[in-house]
Design a protein that fits this description.
Elements: E1 2-9, H1 12-19, H2 21-33, E2 38-41, E3 51-53, H3 55-68, E4 72-81, E5 88-100, E6 103-107, H4 112-127, E7 133-139, H5 141-144, H6 154-164, E8 173-179
Parallel strand pairs: 6-7, 7-8
Antiparallel strand pairs: 1-8, 2-3, 4-5, 5-6
Helix pairs in contact: 1-2
């Protein structure tokens, strides 16, 4: 895969390159080593029989490569309670795909809501003082057109964050848009 665009929110790219240059280098190497192949045959009406890139295959490659470099999953478990209620919901959690030191990384080939939810998770772990910067790796619009319907694209995420200004997320984030080689 290749990087086609990078976006820095609240100094995310600068924090990554200055404080965590070895992590940035690893992230770039991982992206370079992921090989996209059209292995999925669409069963969707609008793309019946068309060969597409498989999010499942790409996610497995990213998981293998990040794990090999010492990145681990980060999961915080908690009990949900709400004001003026006796309801307690146990077993709730927030989870990040990959973390090393104080760098959080999410790879997202899902619906747009999940990309935006990743920003909320970055915010949560930043507020909990468990992270200094988040990195979101997402498909660009051109790649998204060769994947299942429902897969979103990074340009929409960047567009929305730009319009929210500094209000959300209130955490340094670097967003990396990727495409096939």
């Amino acid at each position: 895969m290749k990087i086609v665009y990078e976006y820095s929110h609240l100094g995310g790219a600068e924090i990554l390159s200055v404080r965590y240059p070895e992590h940035e280098k690893e992230i770039y190497e991982i992206i370079e080593h992921v090989t996209a192949q059209k292995t999925k045959i669409s069963e969707e009406k609008s793309m019946m029989g068309r060969k597409l890139y498989s999010p499942k295959d790409l996610n497995m490659q990213f998981k293998t490569l990040f794990t090999e470099r010492g990145y681990q999953e980060l999961k915080d478990r908690y009990t949900i309670t709400i004001p003026n209620s006796e309801i307690q919901i146990t077993g709730a959690f927030k989870q990040i795909d990959f973390v090393k030191d104080r760098v959080l990384v999410e790879v997202q080939f899902g619906k747009y809501a999940f990309m935006f939810y990743d920003m909320a998770k970055f915010q949560y772990f930043y507020n909990e003082n468990k992270a200094e910067v988040g990195v979101e790796i997402v498909p660009c619009h051109a790649l998204h057109k060769n994947m299942s319907t429902g897969v979103s694209y990074g340009e929409q995420l960047v567009y929305d964050i730009e319009r929210l200004k500094r209000h959300f997320p209130a955490v340094p984030v670097k967003i990396i848009l990727i495409d096939i080689d």
